[in-house]
Amino acid sequence: MPYLRKVKIKNNEYYYLFHTTRDGDKFRKYSKYLGKDKPERERLQIMKDEFLNEIKTKKPEDIKPNVVEALQKIQSENGFLPKEELIRISHELDIPGTDIYGVATFYGQFKLAERGKYIVSVCTGTACHVKGSNNLLDFLEKYLKIKAGETTADRKITLEAVNCIGACARAPAIMINDNVYGELDEEKVKKIIAGLK
Amino acid sequence: MRNLLKEAEKELNGDIITVGLATCGMSAGGLPVYEKLEKAGILPVEKVGCIGMCYAEPIVTVIKNRKKSIYGGINENNVNDLIECIKEDKVMKKNFLCNDISELEFYKKQKRLVMRNSGEINPLKLGHYLYQGGLEGLKKALAMEPAKVVEAIKKSGLRGRGGAGFPTGMKWEFIAKRTGKKYLICNGDEGDPGAFMNRTVMESDPFALIEGMVIAAHATGCDEGIIYTRAEYPLAIKTLEHAIKTCYENNILGEKILGSGLKFDLAIKKGAGAFVCGEETALISSIEGKRGMPRPRPPYPAESGLYERPTNVNNVGTFANVATIMRIGVEEYTKIGTEKTKGTMILCLVGKIKRSGVVEVPMGMKLSEIILDIGGGPPAGKLKAVLSGGPAGGCIPKEHLDIKLDYETLASIGAIMGSGGMVVINDESSMVEVARYFMRFTQEESCGKCTPCREGTKRLLEMLVNVSRGVGKEEDLDKIEALSKFIQENSLCGLGQNAPNPVLSTLKFFRNEYIMHLQGKNPGKTYNDMKQFIITQKCVGCGNCERNCPVKAISGELKKKFKINQDICIKCGKCYDVCAFKAIERK
């Protein structure tokens, strides 16, 4: 039987529906965020029915919110993960902010700081390393006057060192946004970077 | 589907130009070549996948009047010459490679079974796949009872291509016994630096992967599948998405597949960039949207995996092999390979090697044949060692290169098969530095769940950094060895258990190089961490470096030039970082 509960977060009140099911010896707790205002009685009954229906018809993966997917969506829209967005999905998915932060910092793909228009990823995989990708990275750091992980002041280029982009046979390689450039040296990199608008 | 096949027959039988446009072809500038060839309009132009000769990219194949000629290194500048040559029916000698790939040294010893379509067909067209005999395996499998298919895979002796080499048939048997909702996962999270064979299969022959997965679904009774792949492979994702859509349109996925009662849905999940997610339990929690951390086994995924349901996880290479086995038959397949390890292995030859690329060789081939005959050895300098299996693998010195390629033999000398990346190292690199490089990698990628891996790799890296800088004594090498063994024995998952492999195997075979480092000599040529830190005339005597030096190696008076005592200095670089006047140099 679903029940309504008030949850207090930082002096703000939020209303949730909760429901628990038993499958053999396993318990599963479901919840649904309703909003900041308490729903009216009749409306509440409809919401409860809808909630029960959702649990019955949906697959387990639909009910458990997928944090990685939510973060990937935010990242593709903004280019990075703004703090406000993280707090928003924390409320929306009913997952503590610390857990969301934990997932966001676990994966290399997620960035918490704003990035440039062009993401220059220097591959530091084994094959590239053997062929001198560290010299290439040093050169780019000097040339762009930023360190790996930083963005130029005009927000144009972000320099990153990444683990293997899979272009090992054409090492040393860099990836600029989704395009891969291989068999590079300082002169070639200079040309490519100068070609970015 | 018949129409698609007819179309493909027309396209592939007639005069045609194909351009290899997988990631390596693209990175070499294949796209402008393709565009120019298409604009010229002399012959129909087709985009194909990667043929494996990454060293000669971009590769253009011209078939005119039933005569085939393959050209390498065609770029924007010389594509016009090629167009002229095709018009005049001449051969462009400068870039001509061969008439057929079997003529090349690179292909003579290869056995292209799983990769037979790569670089031959357009990966976006189902018709091309059908023309090459695609879906035959699936049709055969659908005519068999599921249990018979499992039996066939068991008989074929196929072992997981992800690295550990667990028999696939047995894995399927476990999951087939389970009832209720089951998941089938394809592990395409190829995080090993130096390995890209999964990417090649996904980009060049996506239908083979899907076919293998549908066969597995039929055999194991899973009705939902997920391909988990890296977000760093944008082209592979695009190709797979297109292939899945085409399969749904042609009744290869969805309900009542090819007129049988089989139902199977397939979707792609993009990873978010964590090496440890290649481990199956970590991969599962990553799909669920949590931190991708491994958990202790048992329970194995076959009992409780994705969403606590029975789950079967196989590598991309394994599924591609399944399609091949069903197509050519178990008997034919078991003829290839050694007694314990059947079939072929796809390897990536990279590093200091003349002909780098993706190769497919029968199991049991000697490593020297692969490196020297197929790959052509290093372009300069002397061959020193081969690293097999990425950061979890070990190094094989050139003296041991006559061993055979199979799971047991490689494990016996401290290396592993891994996913199949072979990085060739010549005498320009120092092995200590190679070990340090891998340790840095695993230390960064350690998920932090278990202490031996989290803390152990960190301390191991510190010790290696010291040795590589020439600081420390010979006893430290014993400490490194002891800690390595401790990490191996006590870590939770494969990442930690295999993390010290590169250190242990380099210590075993190249202990002299470690000692050279300790004596302040450089065994390689490219390495520069042996350099000393020196304070130059720019020093204004602020004393900032002195305050920050952790070992008090810097001394001097304020407002005068400071000095570094090289005997005490541990070359940590702290002074170099804090100096506001750029007065400290590495020489």
CATH architecture of the largest domain in chain A: 3-Layer(aba) Sandwich
CATH C-level category of the largest domain in chain A? Alpha Beta
The largest beta-sheet of chain A arranges its strands as 5-4-6-7
Tally the structural domains of chain B.
5
> How can the largest sheet of chain A be summarized?
4 strands, mixed
Secondary structure category of chain B: alpha/beta
| Oligomeric form | heterodimer
Explain what this protein looks like in three dimensions.
The complex is a heterodimer of chains A (197) and B (587). Helices cover 41% and strands 24% of the residues of chain A. With 197 residues, chain A is α+β, with helices and mostly antiparallel strands. Chain A has three domains: 3-62, no CATH class; 67-106, no CATH class; 118-194, 3-Layer(aba) Sandwich (Glutaredoxin). In chain A, strands 5-4-6-7 form a four-stranded mixed sheet, with helices on one face. Chain A has a three-stranded antiparallel sheet with strand order 1-2-3, with helices on both faces. Chain B has 587 residues and is α/β, with parallel strands linked by helices. Chain B has five domains: 2-108, Glutaredoxin; 134-334, NADH-ubiquinone oxidoreductase 51kDa subunit (Rossmann fold), CATH 3.40.50.11540; 348-423, Ubiquitin-like (UB roll) (Roll), CATH 3.10.20; 431-518, Up-down Bundle (de novo design (two linked rop proteins)), CATH 1.20.1440; 533-586, Alpha-Beta Plaits. In chain B, strand 3 and strand 4 form a beta hairpin. Chain B is globular. The mean pLDDT of chain B is 88. The chains are: A alpha+beta (197), B alpha/beta (587). Chains A and B meet through helix 3, helix 5, helix 6 and strand 7 of A and helix 2, strand 10, strand 14 and helix 18 of B.
